[in-house]
Amino acid sequence: MKPTSKAAIFAKEIPYAVRSCHTNPSISCGECRLGELCLPIALDAKEILRLDEIVKQGRALSKGDYLYHQDEEFKAIYAIRAGSFKTFKTSRDGTEQVTGLYLPGEIMGMDGISSNRYGSSAIALETGSFCEIPFHLLEDLSTKIPSLQGRFFRLMGQEIVKDQQMLTLVSSNAADERVAALLLSISSRNHRRKLSPTHFRLPMTRADIGSYLGVTLETVSRVFGRLQKLAIVKVDNREIEVIDMPALKKIAKVHDGD
Amino acid sequence: MKPTSKAAIFAKEIPYAVRSCHTNPSISCGECRLGELCLPIALDAKEILRLDEIVKQGRALSKGDYLYHQDEEFKAIYAIRAGSFKTFKTSRDGTEQVTGLYLPGEIMGMDGISSNRYGSSAIALETGSFCEIPFHLLEDLSTKIPSLQGRFFRLMGQEIVKDQQMLTLVSSNAADERVAALLLSISSRNHRRKLSPTHFRLPMTRADIGSYLGVTLETVSRVFGRLQKLAIVKVDNREIEVIDMPALKKIAKVHDGD
DNA sequence: CGGTATCTTGACTGTTGTCAAGCCCCGTGG
DNA sequence: CCACGGGGCTTGACAACAGTCAAGATACCG
């Protein structure tokens, strides 16, 4: 419920010379090191410049700040630059259900496209920054740049695949399997960003994880306890160290590499 | 595993004079009475003609026939004209997990866009027919017809919203709620097609429903028993009659209309 | 340094899964 | 037309995993 953007303050604290996407909020798509994960994949240099013209860059948020609210008018999609975000639906009785976890290079807000209203709220789990891409401008540009249209079709397709994977995960009822799969998901997404796949910090609380996976926070806690006892992961509060990756994959019923 | 198409046979049985989409397999998009539900929404007459040029119409399938297989190369998306279809994922150990139920006017196959391979298999639950839309042609045409691009963005957005609704449904762990929500979903989709929202036939077996909802078939059966005992629905095998719609919505925790 | 949010652990309960038996419906073939 | 067979469905008994409630410990923020 804090509408205040801290973009200005954040920008002052970070010297412009730092040409790294996740620390410098005012960098362009062409210079952003997340480019190869984010929207610009499949675009050439000239096309990226045109994309840059419609992307509002470098806004920052701190923990608890909203990116958008459920049922609010859909105007833009958001590319995560730094930090982590969750999306959640609030039902009439006030219950919150976490529907997504988003890390740098990923795109949020696509659940608003069909109905012109966001289907969920998005909130920062820690200090972070993002780029805003007004959807109507993206649509216009997509008709002019076929490779951008193709990229965005594929991006939406990815979201569909991701959601269906979550669905099958949550339908298959083993709590251990769900938690293991979440750890592996974070691990592989970290790996893509050249971060350690075996040592990371959970961006969500036990309650959020539980809500996301369809179990209670107590169960999440107990599963972490079990996995630790089996020497598969080391859990120190939010700090996770994967000790036995094959065993973790076995529990998650993931057989192939990642 | 039956690759045989019965299009030819089917076409013979139905007189061409019947200008109704779901019975005449060789009707065009412009004439199809599902047009207002399907891909052509938001297109004008001239644009629909161009869409018609890329749509392969009127193929028919009988129960158990595959529309496409998991991991097979993604070539096209499919618009359902008649009948009902399910999508499912097969995991390495042979377990099948139902991931979707598709009724006339709905589009299947979008889970193949991002990776160029279908993420699930699609099979006919009864005799039915469909239109095939080669994706690369749709992409080409979309760059030329902005309203088609917009329509397809929205269609994919709808799929994302639908999947996320399933996710929240399956996460919230009441079996009664899940079954009630499925009944309501079928009911409202029937309503859109001008069919009875209170009296319909379940296209899936108990086992399929259970797999889709993340419960066992026995639980599905018991829930139907409970709902019947409460005089909320009348269940006669696959035949469903909704007697107390408000009560059903209450169980499904749907408060609003639809 | 104090207060609150988060996390862990325990005991008990309950819904759902599992296993098993039997029924019903429907299509097939005699 | 009827007998047969098999898939689909129902129902019951029991067990187990996870939910609920509660208390206490720990971490984090101002």
Could you characterize the architecture of this molecule?
2 copies of one chain form a homodimer. In chain A, the strands form 3 sheets. A 4-stranded antiparallel beta sheet of chain A has the order 1-8-3-6. Chain A has a 4-stranded antiparallel beta sheet with strand order 2-7-4-5. Chain A has helices spanning 7-13, 45-54, 135-144, 146-171, 175-192, 206-213, 217-229, 245-251; strands spanning 56-61, 66-68, 76-82, 85-90, 96-102, 107-108, 121-124, 128-134, 199-201, 233-236, 239-242. The model of chain A is unreliable at 1-22 (pLDDT under 50). In chain A, a hairpin with a 5-residue loop joins β4 and β5. Chain A has 2 domains: 7-162, Jelly Rolls (Sandwich); 172-251, Arc Repressor Mutant, subunit A (Orthogonal Bundle), CATH 1.10.10. Chain A is 38% helix and 21% strand. Chain A contains 8 helices and 11 strands. With 258 residues, the first copy, chain A, is of the alpha+beta class. At the A-B interface, β5, α3, α4 and α6 of A face β5, α3, α4 and α6 of B. Chain A binds a DNA duplex (30 and 30 nucleotides) through residues 173-175, 205-207, 215-222, 224-225, 237.
